[in-house]
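Bug report

Summary: structure tokens for Spore protein YkvP/CgeB glycosyl transferase-like domain-containing protein differ between web form and batch submission.
Environment: batch mode, default settings.
Steps: 1) Submit the sequence below via batch. 2) Compare with the web form result.

Sequence submitted:
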Amino acid sequence: MDEKIRVAFLYKKSNPLLSPTNYDTTYYHFFMDALKRNSRIDVTYFPTENKMDVRGLKNKFDIILLYENWNGGSPDELIGINELDIPVIARCGDFHAAQKYDTISYHEKYKINHYFGFNTKELFYQFYPKNFKYKTVIYGLEPSLYQNVIPFKDRIKNRILNSGAIGNTSLYSRAMNLFKPVHGNPYYEYRLRTKCNKLPYVDYTSTLQHEFIGDKYPLLLQKYQAAIAATTFGPTIKYWEIPAAGCLTFMEITKKNGGEYLGYTDEETAIFINEDNYEEKFKEFLRNPDDPKWEKIANAGRKYALENLNNDKAVDSLVDLMEEFV
């Protein structure tokens, strides 16, 4: 297209995930920084709260972009949306929360034309109707945060970093989990990540309660030569954050989580693990951490993530979707 696509980005101004000081700055950098950098779109930001009268957008915008597909971070009500013929594109986050937050009801309320998220269509359609349109857009890696990292040889080499949410392993909690849904339950969502914490050579850092939150998370990662990215049902942003920080990434890739779509190659850009082989894979590294092959794999993984899974690539993919509607 010769002319820029005019995009109206609608979001709740009280949304903490769009703050640069939040513990998770993933969404801030994607929506507030990367969108602006793209030369194919002209983005106007509409911070609102419970209600927004969108009739004033008529003839001024080509696309309405919603922070997400329900009122957690998007306005409760879009007044006059049925009077507009502007296509609506919405981010979709935790698919498994569709029932919990009744997100499907917002499909008509927001008049959504298309959804996007960083996971696969297969996982999306486990929770959403097959007639909803969805595109995989792998966002979340802000390249500026990963430009200058500690050299691999200068990092901790006799320990492996594990970070993020894990399941509660108490006897009571495990008993209660038998009666709870699998999806959305940390004990099942992070089953292998939780198991890794039992190993004596694994250092664990939680999501909060430490200094390495938000933009400082890469500073934690680059302390270690090796780190773990493990989720049961679908990759999280750690799968591209950890390699980008220059870590040898022990990455859970299985048929169940469908992680092959990310494009990593076992023993070339990451070390693939599962519940049967993870201990042996860890020990192979720890037996000889000075083997140059580990640094080679880490460097290749870093290069792959920064070149292929960054926010600018993600915005380009999103803009390709927008062009289908204008």
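Above is the batch result. After comparison, the two runs are identical; trailing whitespace caused the diff. The chain has a mean pLDDT of 94. The chain has eleven helices and 13 strands.
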